[in-house]
Amino acid sequence: MVTWLWLAVTGVSLTVAVVLIVRGDGSRVQKLQPVHAAVWVQLALAFGFAAILGGWNVISGGIAGCAAATYVIFLALLRNATTPPRHQDRR
Question: Helices (DSSP H) in 2-85: which residue ranges?
Fold first, then answer.
């Protein structure tokens, strides 16, 4: 991918991160909103390194892998926080 395209994707990722930091992500669990923003900051870093180093590389892949792991953790925490507790039978 051309360097300017990596820069454009970096800009979009940073914009999403700023919106999430300033406005939130709309979820009912406000404690987790910084985690969601962190995913986009990590993606912006990955794309930024790709732009600086002239293409996707090991550093970009490593940071993107961390972003993916952070997102999986975010989704698990979000699911846990929004799932109502189970009622147990009292027999």
Answer: 3-23, 33-52, 58-82
Structural domain spans, the chain: 3-82
Among 74, 72, 71, residue whose Cα is nearest residue 31? 74
Number of other residues whose CB lies within 10 A of the CB of residue 86: 5
CB 46 within 8 A of CB 67: yes
State the pTM of this model.
0.83
- Which residue in 58, 6, 63, 62 sits closest to 40, CA to CA? 63
pLDDT tens, 12-59? 999 999 999 898 888 778 888 899 999 999 999 999 999 999 999 999
CB of 50 within 8 A of CB of 6? yes
